[in-house]
Amino acid sequence: MSDKTQRHNERMKRMKAVVDKKIAQSTEERGVVVLLTGNGKGKSSSAFGMVARALGHGQKVGVIQFIKGRMSTGEQMFFDGLDNVDYHVMGDGFTWETQNREQDIASAEQAWKLAETMLKDEQYDLLIFDEMTYLFKYDYLSLDKVMTAIKNRPYEQSVVITGRAAKPELKELADTVSVIADEKHAFRQGVKARMGIEY
Ligand code: ATP
Ligand code: MG
């Protein structure tokens, strides 16, 4: 065995001991809150990756998209209508053009009512609240109210929240927080949003 190989093997052995110890220490079994934020691409697509995982295990999933996009997305076409998924695209009132705060708040409240019902229903193993952070950014919804409902959710239920500019309180509440950085985006090189990549 070469020196390099031997050193590598020893390093791997030490690393394995550290990882094994951490695994042995993580024994709690409960649902988690995952927050995916930041300006880079990959928040919603990561959330839908978890939907696929959960469904693969036969779990039940609730999806609420708080901001309605311009077009129907691949994820909506794929997941909506599957037996174990309740998929809701809300926020008909939100567009950058509405300039109607009252209407936006009413839409936010309507979407929240549905989310609140799901957060009380232990049949759901996983809830996706896609683009929810914007509702707090614009004060369309009370963060306190939402955080209380999340804290009181069924023990085994997990919640994934996506969206840019997440409030510090929400980061504090979440068990897992990923802030996706925007280093490059094809958009800035003049590439149009791609089917299957962006939507
Ligand atoms: P995705 O749905 O692809 O995972 P995302 O949820 O992280 O993206 P959003 O902030 O929800 O990103 O933006 C939605 C759309 O904007 C997506 O089509 C995404 O590719 C695009 N987008 C994300 N980040 C950037 C960026 N930095 N510049 C331009 N467009 C972006
Ligand atoms: Mg998104």
Indicate the topology.
Elements: H1 3-25, E1 33-37, H2 43-56, E2 61-65, H3 74-79, E3 85-89, H4 101-119, E4 126-130, H5 133-137, H6 143-151, E5 158-162, H7 168-173, E6 176-179
Parallel strand pairs: 1-5, 1-6, 2-3, 2-4, 4-5
Bound molecules: adenosine-5'-triphosphate and magnesium ion.
In short:
This protein is α/β, with parallel strands linked by helices and 199 residues long. 41% of the residues lie in helices and 15% in strands. It has helices at residues 3-25, 43-56, 74-79, 101-119, 133-137, 143-151, 168-173; strands at 33-37, 61-65, 85-89, 126-130, 158-162, 176-179.
Give descriptors for this structure.
199 residues, alpha/beta, Rossmann fold, six-stranded parallel β-sheet, 41% helix, globular, binds adenosine-5'-triphosphate, binds magnesium ion
Gross morphology is globular
Runs in which pLDDT lies below 50 for 5 or more consecutive residues are none
Q: Tell me the strand order in the biggest sheet.
A: 3-2-4-5-1-6
CATH topology category name:
Rossmann fold
What are the distinct ligands in this entry? adenosine-5'-triphosphate, magnesium ion
Topology as a string of helices (H) and strands (E): HEHEHEHEHHEHE
Average of the residue pLDDT scores: 93
Largest sheet: 6 strands, parallel
Number of helical segments? 7
Outline the structure in words.
The chain has 199 residues and is of the alpha/beta class. It has one domain (31-189): P-loop containing nucleotide triphosphate hydrolases (Rossmann fold, 3-Layer(aba) Sandwich), CATH 3.40.50. The protein is built from seven helices and six strands; from the N terminus they run H-E-H-E-H-E-H-E-H-H-E-H-E. Helix 3 links the parallel strand 2 and strand 3 (85-89). Bound molecules: adenosine-5'-triphosphate (ATP) and magnesium ion. The site of adenosine-5'-triphosphate has 16 residues, from helix 2.
